[in-house]
């Protein structure tokens, strides 16, 4: 999830994700009144649930929200044509009754009859067309419009039919894209067609149709939800009528409140040490499932060290040969993250580990030195490495101190390590402010393409000046290939070529989704799935 880069249309879909840059990831900036003081009035008392988080909401308007903190309330209040049921990796009908390709370049959906928004306004095919037209027209730099880069235009020939005309035929990713943050359906009578609606207006107008409505909104402090009696969608009737989400400035207070039973669920983000400690508490349960999170280093190809493209590539290869991911996994994250040797995490169809094959599992000083000497690069190379201390979890400082130590241990690098708070970081990194920098990623949908096109297509969200026509052609080919085996082979080839010839990023770690609950809470593990959608409606106690 991703917040500040201006998104242009990339070769196939132009999909770029300005990590909430998921990346959609852990935001912990706003103080919460009364943290540790027990349940909030009207929030979690009685049969209701209280959920705690250090994430931060950027916007409730789907046109302006492309981050994990905003995805959580979006998941509760909005419906989409297609959505992911808990545990599912295939998008299935939600607002739609059915969807499918009517021709290679037209994707058609039939909208269920009798749907309405929480304010009583009818939800029809016209609402769907309006929502997608609006998303593309506003094209907010903080929003997910880039996910719709393959959408040429949308038609609603009647009240129950929506037809999407695509630029490239047989797009195998378009259906899951409809279930991402680019796909929420909004009320055309409420939302302006050409500008973002502020959060208070979104709450007041109730131009949404999801499982819950928002009854009280104190942004990034406390949000209270009530089950929507008119909801008719894939998630079914919410199991808990009232849910409150409480926002924390630090994971220390979040840990304290779940430990003391003042909240029912802690979801994002607790440190590995906290999770280890809480796992020993017999009144709590630690839930984890594969989540697809990726942590990686990005190189700005214009400003990184090296006088020529060949020298810059040699520096990147030398860095790749100097890292010990296993030490980061065990030493910093206590096994909650696993070594990543590809942009595509293991478990996704087509995922391989070319960085391990080419550069090894352990640091190889001799190989790293050879890359530099063969390209005429004098060691030690000065690397200005930037990381963020508040957005990707409190262990980022320890992680990047370890990266600095590993690189300098070879004698080939001198690392100037600096950190910047997220609000500044997210602006400066897209304006060539950082030669080498930390990023993280949560997938939009569970498919290998979501780890390739957003990173490596022209005008990608990283804004690091990487583009290769041959690789772009391969990404178009994999996304439009209908034969699964052929598509998998192309995905494997893209990963190999990236590792061998480009290395515009270096993957470090992949992580699970983790939440902690009191023992009486049910349904947590069922919503910790590859869609990264945390659904309040399946939770109960």
From TrEMBL:
InterPro entries xrefs: Peptide/Ni-bd, SBP_5, SBP_5_dom
Pfam families hit by this protein: SBP_bac_5
GO cellular component, one term: cell envelope
Cellular compartments annotated: Cell envelope
MF GO annotations: peptide transmembrane transporter activity
GO biological process annotation, one example: peptide transport
Boundaries of every Solute-binding protein family domain copy: 105-460
Family membership: Belongs to the bacterial solute-binding protein 5 family.
PANTHER family the record matches: PERIPLASMIC BINDING COMPONENT OF ABC TRANSPORTER (PTHR30290), PERIPLASMIC OLIGOPEPTIDE-BINDING PROTEIN-RELATED (PTHR30290:SF10)
Protein name per Swiss-Prot or TrEMBL: Putative D,D-dipeptide-binding periplasmic protein DdpA
Source organism phylogeny: Bacteria, Bacillati, Actinomycetota, Actinomycetes, Mycobacteriales
